[in-house]
Every structure is written in structure tokens, then in C-alpha cells.
Amino acid sequence: PTGTRFDPTPPKGGSAVTFLDTFTENFESYTTTNQEDFPKYINDPALGNRYWRVTAFGSNKYIQLSGNLATTSLRTFFVVPVNFSAMNQFSFQTKDGYNNGKVLKVYYSTNYTPLGDVTKATLTDITSSFNISNVATANAYATNFLNSGIWTKPNSLTGNGFILFEYYGGQGLPTTTMQIDNIKIE
Predict the structure, then answer these.
(1) What's the predicted TM-score (pTM) here?
(2) The Cα angle at residue 119 between residues 34 and 72, in degrees rounded to 5
(3) How far is CA 16 from the centre of its chain?
(4) Residue 84 to residue 181: CA distance in whole angstroms
(5) Using CA atoms, how far apart are residues 57 and 67, in angstroms rounded to an integer?
(6) Which of 39, 75, 82, 140 makes an SS bond possible with 16, Cβ 3.0 to 4.6 Å?
(7) Helix, strand, or coil here: 119?
(8) pLDDT value at residue 33
């Protein structure tokens, strides 16, 4: 048989993708918690059925994903479009909860197609450039968000592209809750 396969959890967002060279995303402009559709970004559960969503604690908003009680493996990407020619550095903050293993990786890509199949894109792993929060106990959250470091873009990386956060966890894997805030491109 030929034709398009039905995707029960298609990518969300991406209706206003702009390749920016400087910005800070603190998620405070989103009016609803549990929001999963981000016009400027792409939220793609490539495996499983969970999306990154806006969550709030106290007066702070951020995005969060957890593999708790997942009945399948999860591989969900939060995709940030950037102008690599004009940007210099990338940073963000993380906070973990109910930690039972590392679940977050960070990549960049120059050939990802917005709302396309993220697993077909070339992903360059830059996770080792960051100190991702890994301090929570198995039954609590870390106390504060952690400045996860600064990645300086190589001069050879130019043109429009994407930075991708990947949550990989769920059934049979770590189920740590991961929170991301204050994504910054400068």
C-alpha cells in the first residue's frame, strides 16, 4: 500500500517559525498552563504520545515533560529555529524532578524540515556542552533552576537552522521529569 501514514501524535506549533538571531524565551507570555502548541517553535513526539507543555510553579512558567507512568518509550523534541549566521551563543536553564536517570539531550540541525520527520534530520549532539540539572532525588524536585551553561556556536555553522531539545525516557527507561526555562540566543 502507498499513501501517507496516520500520525496519532503529529508535531504541534510551527505556525509562526522565524529564524531569530537574538531572543529569550521565558514562557511567561503563554496564558494557559498545559499549552502544547507553540507558534514560534515545534513540539514533536517522534516516539510515544507526550508533548512538552507549559507548566507553572509559583509565579514562574516553563516547559516540562515527564515519563512517569508512560506505557511506551518517549522521544519528544522541542525545536527552536535560529539564524546561525547571526547568533553567537545559546543557553538555557533546567530543573529535574523525581530523578531516576538522564533524559535530556541537546542537538543542532541545519537540514530539519519544520513539522517534518525529525528522525530524518541530521542531529549534531551538543549535550556535553551543558550542565543539565541532575540533582533531584527519586521522590522530589531540585530546589532551583540551574544555569545549564553556554554553547558558543562554531564559526563554520551558518544559515538558518534549529536547536532541538530531546526528551528520551518512559517505559523501560528513566522517567525523570525535566523542566526547561529561559532559552536564550545571543
Answers:
(1) 0.95
(2) 55
(3) 17
(4) 21
(5) 19
(6) 39
(7) helix
(8) 83
